[in-house]
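Let us work through a complete example step by step.
Step 1: write down the sequence.
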Amino acid sequence: MDLIKPGISLDFVGKMKYAIIFSAVLIIICIGSVIFRGGLNLGIDFAGGTIVQVKFQKDISADEIRDALQETVLENSIIQQFGTNEFLIRTAEMLHDQELLNANVQKPLSTAFNEDYEIRRVEVVGSKVGMDFQRKAIFAVIVSWLAMLIYIAWRFEFRYGLGGIIAIIHDVIIIIGAVSILKIEFTISILAALFFVIGFSINDTIVVLDRIRENVKLHARKKLADLINLSINQTLSRTILTSLTVFLTVLSLYFFGGPVIHDLSVALLVGVVIGTYSSIFIACTIVLFFENVQKKGR
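Step 2: predict the structure and record it as tokens.
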């Protein structure tokens, strides 16, 4: 199935300088947001603490729950609505035994709302465990970058590997920035979205870079800029079809998947769009830049 007619010749290389400016501004905004907010809004998976999911049988507001918890260690907790009459209570406190849970959650809620509620989930993560998760998550992302750089550089050429990895780093920074700007809690689910986007983006990037490599062999006398344009146009139909299919699937999850996967869906939507964009305008730009630097050095 071809969404784009064969023989199309769009000038992507001519727009790359504008794309670089756009990406630079976007990255500055994303990094600035993380710095301005004092870091990411880490979930208990990474920061440690307790999360309690409570379902009420009648209409209750977050303010009413907060009032009920005023005289407990949860008075400064974050209370977030989670579906119909369902709330998540997040706190840095460790409610690691039933006695603490009874004193700080069940007793005050029973006093305020009788027995018209149900505690559906309690998760407790220690601060040391959370820090360990942070280190392992950062390590895993960096190792994935290095592994892909080594493989692509070995399988193709170093310039292609460099272009692919810089495109992925670009994607990760922007997704993290979007999470910060939208005040989304950074949890294991968001980390999973990052790894999904890394895989999606590098797959799409390799398709484009491999076509460039093939065209370089077939048309050795042509300029690399022209071959990059040719290659992007040749793979454009495949890129749009693949990305659009994934985007519409994730969009369905966003609207119909419920609040449990809402934040995950947002991160994936941003990732699919920015991953497709970087495959064309970031990875290919780095390949062309690397080629120009090599020529000047000769």
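Step 3: interpret the result. The chain has ten helices and four strands.
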